[in-house]
Design brief:
- The chain contains twelve helices and 14 strands.
- It is α/β, with parallel strands linked by helices.
- The chain folds into two domains: 138 residues, Aspartate Aminotransferase, domain 1; 241 residues, Type I PLP-dependent aspartate aminotransferase-like (Major domain) (Aspartate Aminotransferase, domain 2).
- The chain has a seven-stranded mixed beta sheet with strand order 2-9-8-7-6-4-5, sandwiched between helices.
- α6 links the parallel β6 and β7.
- It is globular, with a radius of gyration of 22 Å.
- Belongs to the class-V pyridoxal-phosphate-dependent aminotransferase family. NifS/IscS subfamily.
- It holds the Pfam family Aminotran_5.
- It catalyses: (sulfur carrier)-H + L-cysteine = (sulfur carrier)-SH + L-alanine.
- This is Cysteine desulfurase.
Length: 393
C-alpha cells in the first residue's frame, strides 16, 4: 500500500482551496444575522452581498439575479418548475420539460413537472445530446411553452454538451422558452458565463470548484420569480429562498470563486496535459481499453474508460487498497457501484459499462499523483489478469 493517498475523484468533490478556508475562518468572527438591521447584521449582509456580486460578475448578470441555495440539487429542484414568472411574459405554466438522458439525478428526478409533461432526449454514442432527436421533439411542441434542461458538461464522461446548438434549436421552436443549464462540472474548467452558455439559468455548486459542500447558486439571466419556491418563510434571497443565510459557507464560495477565476485557464491547460498522459498510459498498458467521449470535446480534467473483463468494483477496491481514490460513474447517488445511466444512454454494452472507471483531476493534481496512479493501476491490471488466467486454466 502506498504511503500517501492519491485523490483522483475531483468531479465528486474537490479539496477546499486555501482562499476559501481563509474566507470562512474570517466569517466565523461575524455573529450577526444578515437579516438584522444592527451593525453586526449589516456586516453579515455586506459579506453576503459581496459574494453575490462576485458570482454575478463571474456569470455576467446582475447581483439581484443570483440566489444562494444549499447546493446544485436544491437550485435545480427550485428552477425546474412549470410555474415561473417573468416580466412581460405569459404566466401560464410551461407545457413541457425536455431533459437530456445523461443529466444528473437532480434533473432527472428533481423536477416538479408531472410525468406526462416530461420528455427525455437521447444521446449519441459519443456522449452528446442527440440534436436530431431534439429537433424532432421540438417540432411537435412548436409554439408551446417549452423548458429545456441540458448540462454544460457530463459529470461521468466529461463530454461537453452542444449547448449553443441546443439553444438555437430551442429558440427557433417557440417564442416562449426557458433553458436551464447545469454548469456544476464546467466551473473552473471551461468558460461558463451567460455569453459562453446562453441559457436562462445557470446552476453551480461550490464544492466542485474548491469551496465548501452545502452551498450553491442559482444564477438567472433575466428577472425571474419562482411561482412556487421550495422553501417558504422569511424574505431572504429576494423572497425566492427562505431561511437564514449560511454566511460562513457563502464566504467560502466567494473565496473559492475568486481564486478559481484567477487560475482556471492555466489549470485547464495543465490538467489536459496530465489527462492525456494518463490516456496514453492506459492505451499502452491495456490496448483493449475503451475510452469514452474521446472523439468530441471533453473537460480537460476527466477521463472515463473501461477495460473489458475487469469489473469496476474490483478495480475500485484494489486501487483503494493501494491508496488511490477514483470513481465509477457518479459518486453521489448511493455510494455504491451500479450501472451508469449515462453509458446506458450512450448505448454502451452493459458488460463494458459495468467496467467503467472515471478519473477526474483537480486544482491539487500534479504529475507525481498521476505517476502513483499509473503504478497502482498497472499492479491491479496485471494481478487481475494473472488471476483470470489461473482461473481459466
Amino acid at each position: 500500500m502506498t504511503a500517501r493517498r492519491v485523490y483522483l475523484d475531483h468531479n465528486a468533490t474537490t479539496p477546499l482551496r486555501p482562499a476559501a478556508r481563509a474566507a470562512m475562518i474570517a466569517a466565523m468572527d461575524l455573529c450577526g444575522n444578515a437579516s438584522s438591521i444592527h451593525a453586526e447584521g449589516r456586516a453579515a449582509r455586506a459579506l453576503i452581498e459581496g459574494a453575490r456580486e462576485a458570482m454575478a460578475r463571474f456569470v455576467k448578470t446582475l447581483p439581484r439575479r443570483v440566489i444562494f441555495t444549499s447546493g446544485a440539487t436544491e437550485a435545480l429542484n427550485a428552477i425546474l418548475t412549470p410555474r415561473l414568472e417573468r416580466s412581460n411574459r405569459p404566466t401560464a405554466p410551461f407545457d413541457v420539460l425536455l431533459v437530456n438522458a445523461g443529466e444528473h439525478a437532480s434533473v432527472l428526478f428533481g423536477h416538479r413537472f408531472s410525468a406526462d409533461a416530461v420528455e427525455t432526449i437521447g444521446m449519441t454514442p459519443d456522449g452528446r445530446l442527440d440534436l436530431d432527436a431534439l429537433a424532432k421533439v421540438l417540432e411537435r411542441y412548436a409554439g408551446r411553452r417549452i423548458m429545456l434542461a441540458l448540462q454544460a458538461a457530463n459529470n461521468e464522461t466529461g463530454v461537453v454538451q452542444p449547448v449553443l446548438q441546443a439553444e438555437a434549436l430551442l429558440r427557433a421552436a417557440s417564442s416562449d422558452t426557458f433553458f436551464v443549464c447545469d454548469a456544476v462540472q464546467a466551473a473552473g474548467k471551461i468558460a461558463c458565463d451567460f455569453d459562453a452558455l446562453p441559457a436562462d439559468a445557470l446552476i453551480f455548486s461550490a464544492h466542485k470548484f474548491g469551496g465548501p459542500a452545502g452551498i450553491g447558486a442559482l444564477c438567472l439571466r433575466e428577472d425571474v420569480l419562482l411561482g412556487e419556491p421550495l422553501l417558504r418563510g422569511g424574505g431572504q434571497e429576494f423572497r425566492q429562498r427562505a431561511g437564514t443565510q449560511a454566511v460562513i459557507s457563502i464566504a467560502g464560495l466567494a473565496g473559492a470563486l475568486v481564486d478559481m477565476r484567477e487560475t482556471f485557464v492555466q489549470d485547464s491547460v495543465r490538467l489536459a496535459q496530465l489527462r492525456d498522459q494518463l490516456e496514453s498510459f492506459l492505451r499502452t498498458l491495456a490496448p483493449a481499453a475503451v475510452l469514452f467521449g474521446t472523439e468530441v470535446e471533453r473537460l480537460p480534467n476527466t477521463l472515463c474508460f473501461a477495460v473489458p473483463g475487469m469489473e469496476a468494483q474490483v478495480l475500485l477496491m484494489f486501487l483503494d487498497v493501494e491508496g488511490v481514490a477514483v470513481s465509477s460513474g457518479a459518486a453521489c447517488s448511493s455510494g455504491k457501484v451500479k450501472a451508469s445511466h449515462v453509458l446506458e444512454a450512450m448505448r454502451v454494452d452493459p458488460s463494458l459499462a459495468g467496467a467503467a472507471i472515471r478519473l477526474s483531476l483537480g486544482w491539487t493534481s500534479h504529475l507525481e499523483e498521476c505517476a502513483l496512479f499509473m503504478q497502482a493501476f498497472e499492479k491491479a491490471f496485471r494481478t487481475i489478469k494473472a488471476r483470470q488466467v489461473k482461473s481459466a486454466a
